[in-house]
Amino acid sequence: MPLYEYKCENCQGVFSELRSMSEREAPITCPDCGGEGKIIFSTFAQGGQKGPAEGFCPMPGTGNGPCAKPT
Ligand SMILES: [Zn+2]
Asked: Quick check: helix, strand or coil at residue 19?
């Protein structure tokens, strides 16, 4: 399941959460103050990665391991 980062609009705290793709845009409760957090970053939204099925790769195209181009 992808890991997303959220920022709390109340305390400005940043926290990570594992959520399904369909839930990533939904507001999330801040673990610190209970305020509303909004998504700020997704590890799978970068570099044209379509989803977790292709393997975790924060920097596509580096040519190593799961980051190598699929054949
Ligand atoms: Zn908060």
From this structure: coil
Distance 53 CA to ligand 1 centre (A): 32
Do residues 1 and 18 touch, judged by C-beta distance below 8 A? yes
What pairs with residue 42 in β-bridges? Answer: 4
The rounded Å distance from CA 21 to ligand 1 centre is: 23
The CB-side HSE value for 29 (13 A sphere, CA atoms) comes to 3
Which three-class secondary structure state does DSSP give residue 41? strand
Q: Which residues surround ligand 1, an ion (CB under 5 A)?
A: 8, 10-11, 13, 30, 32-33, 35
Q: What is the pLDDT of residues 26-56, one digit of tens each?
A: 999 999 999 999 998 655 545 544 555 555 6
pTM equals: 0.56
